[in-house]
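Example A, followed by Example B.
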Amino acid sequence: MENRVDIQKSLEQLEGFEWPAPPDDATGLVKAAHSLRQRPIGSLNAHELGRLIGQDIGLAWLLPIAVKILRETVADQRLSGFYDDDLLTAVLTRKSDVWRSHPQLAATLKEIVPLLEDISPYIRVDIRGFLTETEA
């Protein structure tokens, strides 16, 4: 499922491109994205991954990590009732061209979603959207 990528490298290193510094009046999200691109991808937590994925940043490297986290933590949802909805939403809401480029990740995500219980109506909408996007 995963490409073998050096998770000690940052997105800047993996992409071979450094973004220019954000302007002084940039939003918090823009500043965070710039900063997160400089950190090793293996050090990013679920929230940070969700922020970047939600902005379509570094998907080739971050989606495999995110899907792995979602797969590894799906059993935790049954035990604690908590599941990282922000990361799940960020992953589920990527467009169909992303899933066509990553069919194995889409297949893995399709295996995960039926295992989720007691999810919000908003996440159910995202799941339906993902299933529609990946059927097209």
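Example B, a separate protein, is given below in the same form.
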Amino acid sequence: MDALASAAPAGGAALVLNAGSSSLKAGLFAADGRCLWREQRRWHPSSGAMEEVLGSWLPAALAAWDGEPLLAAHRVVHGGEHFTAPTPLNPAVLEVLEDLIQLAPLHNGPALAVMRWLAQWRPQLPQWACFDTAFHSTLPLEARTYALPAAWRQLGLRRFGFHGLNHEHVSDTISRQWRSGAKAPSGPLRLISCHLGAGCSLCAIREGRSVATTMGYTPLEGLVMATRSGSIDPGLLLRLLRQGLTPEQLERGLQGESGLLGLSAGLSSDMRQLRQAAAAGHDGAQLAIAVFRHSLLEGIGAMAANLGGVDVIALSGGIGEHDDELLADLKASLGWLGRVELVRVPADEEGLIARRCLSAAGGRPAEPDRCSPTA
């Protein structure tokens, strides 16, 4: 946090709150898009209530800023079919969001807890929501439809896609770079955005529009993740149900005990720790990395097929931005795609949320300066 930013008033700014499955991020963004302040706290239901984390941290952190923010903006993972744009919160919206918790329990529940806490702490502060599913509202019919009985599909069982806020940020960033550079393709820009963190998903983007993605009805589908299984054979779940597992046991296993954690036999869900253990010869860590890699390469191939070729593959998220071994492996493994630029783009969901919500509320935010977390 630089001295110039710390002297800026908060009035007219957006306070952005991003409750993830393993972290709680907050940022303050000026009306012109500048990042004034940003911090992150680790959070997990087992470590205490969301309200306790917020109450012991946020009021003190914001005490140095003059003035009241113009609005507070939240990242909401699942917007269902109802929400495809930044939306001001009111009792009717909150009621729908409560109903959507079941579709993304690791994310929507904490986001609602933050909204309720903020309404108690700053009752006069307008609150807005931005949705991870919104960017994928452009998915064509064939990309969002499951091959299910018509009666089931009429219940709203379809692919929504997630991580849309960061995929949109990656798309905006790459598009600006290509427009201003000498490498612009002769046809539409074909981009694969790879969000690789605790949650992982790919998005095939053509001319700034999502045309295919790996996550589906919930954030469980697709790539292998930290503790989530990714795509598996539905018949496997039927067998477990017939053996007596309850839906609650299935959910707990698929959401919190699978992925890298399950593959490494409980060693770790953190790719950094798995890399170290694999180098020391740990069989479970080696298996976890190998299955993760296989899933990722398979997904990139599918996204490339949907785009009819690729110009840029962008890595984002904690693993995508920092795992040098993965970057080297992808460079060596994806030569068959032809001339493809492989780049890293720092995730910035909060900056995008601030720009979208300030714009929707009548502000005119400019392109943001980069601002790294202070904690």
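On Example B: The chain has a mean pLDDT of 90.
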